[in-house]
Amino acid sequence: MKKNLFKIILGLIFSIGILTYIILANGFDKLKSQLLTLNPFWITLAILSMAMYWLLEAQVLHSISKSLNANISFRDSFRVTMTGQFFNSITPFATGGQPAQAYQMSQKGIKIGMVGSILTGKFIIYQSVLTLYSFVVLIFKLSFFKARLSNFTHLATIGFIVNTAVIVFLLLISSYTSFANFVLGLFLRVLEKLRIIKNSNKLAEKIEKQIVLFRSSFIIIKNNPWMIFKTSVITIFQLLAFFIIPYFIYRAFGLMGDSLGNMIAAKALVVMITSFIPIPGASGGAEGSFYMFFSMFYGKKIVGTAVLVWRIITFYFNLLFGGLFTLLSRRETKIQGN
Known about the structure:
The protein is mainly alpha-helical and about 350 residues long. It is built from 15 helices and no strands. α3 packs antiparallel against α11 (about 225-245), α3 runs antiparallel to α12 (about 245-250) and α6 (about 110-140) packs antiparallel against α8 (about 150-175).
């Protein structure tokens, strides 16, 4: 609990520091007047889009789980999703979400090997769709962003390569037992040298049994093209719901004229570039990237306030609602344990 609290505080310090700088740079009175002029209709659409993003992710998780006959309801899938959102927000590289989700799903009686294949399959689909969005942007919008942003090509290329490398790595682990065992052995030996674990060989034997279940479950997922297609389409709309939030905020300020397609493209690039910033919630990098990409749409006078509104909806709401669902799930687990 202390480690999680430290991560939350660290993320908040980075995020609040950036937002404070933006507020001071624009002036508190100007910020206040701009917030008061926001159109509630468009802000409501932005918030509903965030909620839709959560619901569609829960549907992907539920669909993959059903394909493996895992006993989990949509309600529980949504709770697992919100737990993931919370822990992704408080851990570097968003690494805490899946372990927390795995634990929660195992408490529902799903074997950990099967849980691993479900979450890995979901993550591969998510990263693949995100990379596809980025690829389309690079093809059709490269000249647009290159003309307006310095070093854009380098940032976009690095982000694209990293995302693609992650997908390839996960597919290799999921498809080749020898490669998975090699990575597992290497990881456990590192932990043993760091004195985090004592007997890596003994632990490896236990984990290898779960790897067998993981692979057999993943093969079922891989051999179900309809489920993969369906969840990929859902993920396309899930990410679209997230990418369209800046446009709704843009309209809330009473702005018009800029292309919806360009804003969706810009948000896809922001997500791709900030996915692997090693700070909880990508704090600092997320705000900076949004400021850099969306200044061309909002203008220098409004973009600071837009960053604040966007961050509240896409980050602090994850902390708030994700934290509430996490606490609720833990409370229910304790009650059932008694």
